[in-house]
Amino acid sequence: MKIKQAYRLAAFLWAGSVMALTSCAAPQSPTPTLPPMASPAPVIAREPEMGPAPADTYAPIDPFTMQQRLGRGLNLGNALEAPNEGEWGLRLDAYMFPLIREGGFHTVRVPIRWSAHALREEPFTIDPTFFERVDWVIEQALNNDLNVVINVHHYEELFENPNAEWTRFLALWDQIATRYRDLPPTVLFEPLNEPHGALTSRVWQALFNETLTVIRRTNPTRNVIFTGANWGRLSSLFSIAVPQDPYLIATFHFYEPDTFTHQGANWVNGSAEWIGARWLGTESDRLAIDRAFNALARWSKDKNVPVWMGEFGSYGMYAELEDRARWTDYVARAAESRGITWAYWEFSEGFGVYNRAEQQWIEPLHRALFPNGQP
Ligand code: BGC
Question: How many structural domains is the chain composed of?
Answer without folding.
Answer: 1
